[in-house]
Amino acid sequence: MSAGKVRSGNDLSLLLCGEAGRGIQSVESVTTGLLKSAGFHVFSWKEFMSRVRGGSNSTTIRVASHSVEAPLGRVDLLFPFDAAALRHVRHRVTSDTILFADEDIIDTVQSPDGPVTAVVPFRKTAVELGNAVYANMVASGFIAGLFDVDFTLIGARVESLFTGPRAGLAAVNHEAARQGYDLARKIVDDGLFRSTIIPDSVVHDRAFISGAEAVGIGALAGGCNFVSSYPMSPSTAVLVFMAEKAREFECVVEQAEDEISAVNMAIGAWYAGARAMVTTSGGGFALMEEAMGLAGMIESPLVIHLAQRPGPATGLPTRTEQGDLQLALYSGHGEFPRILLAPATAREAIELSRRAFHMADRYQVPVFILTDQYLIDSYYTAIPPEIDGSPPISNIVETERDYRRYRLTPDGVSPRGIPGWGAGLVMVDSDEHDEEGHITENHQVRTAMVDKRMAKYAAMERDVLQPSLVGSEEYHTLVVSWGSTGPVVREALERLGRPGVSQLHFSQVFPLHVNTAHYLEKARRIILVEGNATSQFGRLLRAETGYRATDRILKYDGLPFTVEELERRLAALDGGEVEP
């Protein structure tokens, strides 16, 4: 090792990188689980190429003694599994980075101001154990050893991974982890590296879940019992999670032949009395738009999980962006109400996914859960929300003989019956219709039905989520965020510590809360932070409130904002410039 390092403070950033197929995600899964079990706050996010083998992927694991929910660009500890990966992440490596790798990889590091290097024989150790594939477990044990994780936790983790037909692999993987652990302890004992991060006892009561798992948990808590989808990254992770839990929660999970079939299955399921969700991404949802109009006309509840990725067309299928807000907002021809929710963290993904089913069922409208690749594929140490065991409230009524599916009501919400429950006939039609559901071209009835549907917006006002103000109420500048940008904006502002600068974060992006304009009118300066090229939410704010952002910080390269990047760009605004 070229120099020793003691990492003081309470926050470290580890970067794993290598080609697809080399097991980077396996190392992430084992390592993050061990660190969380040991009482460390853990957050991880990944960037990867759209290929099964080759290329260069990376996962960043943030380990701290306090809660962390935002990505860092800084790399403290680097674990490259091949030279190409090292080149891929070199822009994030500094002279303060410590690089742990096999000797042939370290030999490629030539810059005199490059990282501190330490030769660790991950691959050699694995080959001596019988197969180079064990290098992943050697690396996992090594990282656990750097943080002095109790080795009994590692043994338990290995046993949980290798059961059933794979039980015969447990012993050799246990030994691989042991040898990696011993390599790390030698480095620590020699004074070449030491972490001062202190475990936190509260972590043991928290969940460690991905954004995809959180969406699925929230959906199940909301009573979801039917999921239909055509796989499309990054939304597929939600479909996979729901399929894994289908038997336990008596949920039908259907992989349809295409997206059009998937969304129409979901609408049909709601018509029959189920609580249904489709999970898709931008290109898949583009095929669902005609069915959006159907849901609007027949006033069917519908929950759509839309995991955003960069477009247009195939775009960057494994990267992230907040580019589909307008797609969701204006999808479907004609005019009809809808609700758009955008969680910022795993905990909020649970809460809002559950809420989506409540709102869809109560107001008989489509409800979107807008996530993105970054949130879906990240892992969070999350405080689980309070969810009681009571069943979700159902607004389905038993029909009487004179039942009218589209009865005119003051709030626009008609009693919703389902076929076969009650004496009434439940008629729906994609044409304009009267109160009973019969097709009509009567102009007065048409006007009444449009007014009825649009009246739901006024009824929804009592359930619209208010934006959250983070910071002083005596502000002159508001930094506005929505969805997954929330935590990174919050931490960047905490670092800057500028008086009079507060954050206004939106987890419901449509309809907007009635107090939105009140927050904006108090600010002399409004800074929009968004992961798209045209400030889509800024346009919506201006259209709905009349207030225009004075500055915009936008990103659309397929990667999320990092705390340091956003801190730098916010600071640059004080000089009147925004860095690219």
Briefly characterize the structure.
It contains 21 helices and 22 strands.
Explain this structure to me?
This protein is an alpha/beta fold and 580 residues long. The chain folds into three domains: 5-205, Pyruvate-ferredoxin Oxidoreductase, domain 3 (3-Layer(aba) Sandwich), CATH 3.40.920; 208-382, 3-Layer(aba) Sandwich (Rossmann fold), CATH 3.40.50; 464-573, Rossmann fold. 37% of the residues lie in helices and 19% in strands. The protein contains 21 helices and 22 strands. The strands form four sheets. It has an eight-stranded mixed sheet with strand order 7-6-5-2-4-3-16-9. It has a seven-stranded mixed sheet with strand order 11-10-12-13-15-14-20, sandwiched between helices. A five-stranded mixed sheet has the order 17-19-18-21-22, sandwiched between helices. α1 crosses α6 and α18 packs across α21 (563-573). Mean pLDDT is 94; it is low at 576-580.
